[in-house]
Amino acid sequence: MILAVACGSPAPAVPKSEAPSAPVVKRQPFGTVDGSPVEMFTLTNKNGVEVSAITYGGIITSIKTPDRNGAIGDIVLGFNSIDGYLGDHPYFGALIGRYGNRIAKGRFTIDGTEYTLATNNLPNHLHGGIKGFDKKIWRAGPLPPPARNGIVLSYTSADGEEGYPGRLDVVVTYILTDDNQLIVEYEAGSNKPTHVNLTQHSYFNLAGEGSGDILGHELTIDADRYTPVDATLIPTGEIAPVEGTPFDFRKSTPIGARIDAADEQIKNGQGYDHNWVLNRTSTTEMQRAARVYEPNSGRTLEVSTTEPGMQFYTGNSLDGKLVGKSGRPYIRRSGFCLETQHYPDTPNHPNFPTTLLRPGERYHTKTAFTFGVSK
Q1: Under CATH, which number does the domain 2-7+25-373 receive?
Q2: Which of the residues 36, 124, 188, 257 has the least number of beta carbons within 10 Å of its own beta carbon?
Q3: Considering 125, 127, 195, 201, which one is annotated as catalytic?
Q4: Per-residue pLDDT tens digits for 205-263
């Protein structure tokens, strides 16, 4: 188990004659945060696909993949130095916790006890609070041989941190395969009942970060339903059909085709900022959630997950004030997020799949991002 490896259990012995050559994970400094060092880890596979992540926030700082002509480009938004990530930015590349997405008015009740969280997205709680997992320095290191090409990150959230009950021990792994697949696996355990909903918040632009908007990307989401929201982006509790709405991506459709439709839900999100209820036949197996195709570069992205939902966000709050790695501003809708997770505000909606984690239970979810090209 990954959790056992992270806690220091030895890897199984492998005879030297049978031991595979261990992948080389590049490790280097990436500045400091309040005097504490931050490191960057870079994974590279045999095809030249490269993923870099830092210990601050578990942030994925770059993903480099080839286009249909073999030219390598960076397809996630972010910054070249730690200073950019310490400034005000919309969670570029970060690990999100304890709870990805919103909780209404920062309140929930467990076993008759009410807990109050920070309302950092007035009037609601968002992405774990004022100093969520995206702003913590994670312990990290390469996966030990004979493990695959990857890194393991771990963090212990103290009882009461950001208002959440229980000490939560979290382990996240990033693994890059030779099939051009980035696997993100999450595990956690708590000593008190608590709510957990972890996700990854990378902003993608398959034409290359800083190359303009993502409205021409063609998207498919394997979901017949979604969760409508109120004006503060809290689910109403309804699980509504996508048919006949701007939220129907069951067939490949340009992201920009209906993004400004005269629709109340589009108005509430200022575009797309909603949770899709994924079509699933299993509660534990990996199943496809989405596919994106960018016509000019030919790049594709497929997302598979064990999660029941996925938040699709189109970078509506980007306004050109942030300048990214390419030296070009990140204009409105110049990146999209596919955040696999449980539904927003689940603690306050008994009809949603639960996010409650009790002592002795194991939180375990997995998402895979597969990068390819279409000729």
Answers
A1: 2.70.98.10
A2: 36
A3: 201
A4: 999 999 999 999 999 999 999 999 999 999 999 999 999 999 999 999 999 999 999 99
